[in-house]
Amino acid sequence: MKVLIEMLMIKKIHLILTIAFLILIPLSIKAQPSQVPDASWGSVDHFKYSSSGESETFKKIKLSSNSIAVGQDITVINLDTGNEIATFNVKSIRYGRQVKMCWIGDSVGMISESYITVKECTR
Length: 123
What we know:
Elements: H1 2-30, E1 34-35, E2 38-40, E3 43-51, E4 54-58, E5 61-63, E6 67-69, E7 73-78, E8 84-89, E9 92-96, E10 101-105, E11 115-119
């Protein structure tokens, strides 16, 4: 009898875990940033710049625009020095709806070597 009760408990736990898994997977998929053709933003978070295998992150920057579309150029300026860090052609914009952030990249697809992260992003 005790074995039968334990087997029923295990089946019940298995069923609960399966249902929880089926509910949570679609929610995590929706949380993924989506590709968008254009975006505008309120503030800049940072710029990760990669060149010749080296990467550097800049926090005190300003951009040449507060909105951009894929195919347009954007310039990143270092606020400490006033010098231009880089200008690149935007090849991807990922929009995180839940966090209201965008990642503006220099290559097509989900991963860019150099990218700008902006806050208060809208599309």
